Amino acid sequence: MRRATAAAALIGILAQAPLRAVEPVFSGQVDAETRLFWDPPRYPGQSGSLADPSVDADLSLAPPRALGSSFDYAIEPYLRWDAVDPHRDLLDLHRCELTFDRRGVRLKAGYDVVAWGVLDFVNPVDVLNQADVLDDFLGRRRLGQPMLDLTWTSGLGALDAIVLAGFRPMALPGVEGRLRPGLAVSNAADYQGGWGWAQPEAALHYSETLGAFYLGLSYFRGYRPQPDFGLAFQGGMPTLLPQYVLEQQAGFEGQWTLESLTLKTEDVVRLNLDGTRGTRACGFGARYDQGALFAGGPGLALLAEFDADELPQTLVVPFTNDVFAGFRLSFNDASSTDLTAWMVWDRNLCRPVAAIADLHRRVGDWVGLDLGYRGILAGGVGPFADLSADSHALAKVDVYF
Predict the structure, then answer these.
(1) Is 327 within the bounds of a domain?
(2) pLDDT tens digit string along 323-355?
(3) What is the pTM of this model?
(4) Cβ atoms 286, 304 nearer than 8 A
(5) What is the domain count for the chain?
(6) How far apart are CA 193 and CA 400, in angstroms?
(7) Are residues 323 and 343 in contact, defined by beta-carbon separation less than 8 angstroms?
(8) What is the pLDDT of residues 128-138, one digit of tens each?
(9) What angle do CA 116, 224, 9 make, to 5 degrees?
(10) Residue 26 lies inside a defined structural domain of this protein
(11) CA distances from residue 235 to 46, 188, 201, 238 in whole angstroms, order as listed
């Protein structure tokens, strides 16, 4: 309720802005998706349906008004409805912000998503926005959060100073949902220090591109977005209680592009509030763009990454010592067909734990088709032990406008 009231107030303020005639722009896409689970559910209360249909809409509204040459604003809501698990239902303001941009200074105020990092699979430096794990448990969608973002750009690079408010706990599946732990997750949250959801958070980020090199340095003080879990009782039943730790994080990201080869790295050190060292995480990756396999044929990109994290391995921090290998085929046809596939190898278990594949194809200007596969390969061991019955396929129809 607090978040909805603040969002409505912000939209109202933007709507009262002075007018300057421009063409209205309303665009986005609506997706009808079905997840197909062929194995019976593992836990009581979970839906046994083969199909889990849902509808989501990713919208972008640039209203027919503006504030002058230095001002602009945008509204980008995201909506999702699920037929099986009401915990997946969502109304999120991905962006709802007012922007001032003049002479190398940009100030943004409102809901926004700010992405840090250069790796393709796991980004340890990316901590500002909460992950939307209910969209895709191995996906990359982030949730909007209220923030004030001041950027200064010069010949020395870009420096961002960000203040965030309204911390968003990670939303996890409900009792009816698939892809959940054996114990239900409590609706409450335990904040280890600070003011809970009202705790102000702050971040700094510096970035610069020097020829073929890109580097980024970051600092964050706030709640780690991935919770730890404790045991609690809700309605007399044991549940998992998410616990959020207030900490600091210093990060580095770098990328070196050498014609067809791109090398990437990310490294973070998490600090306790007193400045003592907490945990560390790092990742290294490479991408090789082969180009067309033959004249007029599809383009091939090979991808590989390594990730290590000193955090305890859990369902929400599944990758702590893993190797990722995959490829991307871009068919360069009129339908924009592309195929991406990944395999994840857990170095602690010495076996693969997950496989991901996605095929996308446009059908005309207004419709797209997506097919996907999410495979849990490690059985009853490793970070996905609770999800051993939750391998599934995806089928989605996208409508663009």
Answers:
(1) yes
(2) 999 999 999 899 999 999 999 999 999 999 999
(3) 0.90
(4) yes
(5) 1
(6) 44
(7) no
(8) 999 999 999 88
(9) 75
(10) no
(11) 18, 12, 33, 8
